[in-house]
C-alpha cells in the first residue's frame, strides 16, 4: 500500500484555518510547498443526501453557544498576537460548497493558494459572506479567474463529484475539525499543533534526503 503524503485539511469558514494558513505560508513555506492541501466543509443538502445513501457520515457536531463565545475570545487573542484584526462575518444559512468547490477551479488554474488567501481575507478581515456567489465572483475576478465558473462551481456536476471524493477521503482520514494535519500515522488537530506537524515533516524529508545521498554515493563507488 502506498504511503499517503503529508497533508492538511483547511476550511474557508474557520478562523483557525485562516490563522493556520498564514502561519504555514509565512513561517513554514518549505512545508507548505511539500504537503497536500485539502479543503474541508460541511456538505450542502444535495451532497449530504448522496453521502448518506453511501452510508458515509461525517463527524460534524453543531457548535454550542459556550464554544462560540470561547472562539470569539480565542481568535481575537490569536489574531492580536499576529498583528491582525478580525472582522466577524454574519452567516445566514450559508452553503459552504459555493466557496470550497470554487477552490477546486482555482486549484486547477494553479491559483489555489492565492484563492484561499483572498477568500480568507474577504471573510475574516472584511467580514464578507463567502457563501454569496457575488463575493466569490469578485475574488475570482481579482485573481484573473473566470468569475462565472468559480462562483457557480457548485452547479458543475463534475466538480461536485470531485468534492464528494474529497469528503469521502476526509471521512476515511478521521478528520473531525480544522485545521487538521496528517503525517503517516500521526494526526495533529488545531493551530497549536502546527509546529509539531512541521517538525515531523521536516524530519522525514531530512531522512529521505540522507538516504538518497547515501544511495547515490554507493552507486558511484
Automatic annotation (TrEMBL):
Domain DSBA-like thioredoxin: 9-200
Keywords for the protein's UniProt record, in alphabetical order: Isomerase
UniProt KW Isomerase keyword: yes
Domain of life: Bacteria
E.C. number: 5.99.1.4
Molecular-function GO terms, alphabetical: 2-hydroxychromene-2-carboxylate isomerase activity; oxidoreductase activity
Reaction(s) this enzyme catalyzes, per UniProt: 2-hydroxychromene-2-carboxylate = (3E)-4-(2-hydroxyphenyl)-2-oxobut-3-enoate
Family statement: Belongs to the GST superfamily. NadH family.
Coiled-coil parts of chain: none
Short name of any one Pfam family annotated for the protein: DSBA
Keyword Isomerase (UniProt): yes
Broad class of enzyme this protein falls into: isomerase
Active site feature: 14 (nucleophile)
Protein name per Swiss-Prot or TrEMBL: 2-hydroxychromene-2-carboxylate isomerase
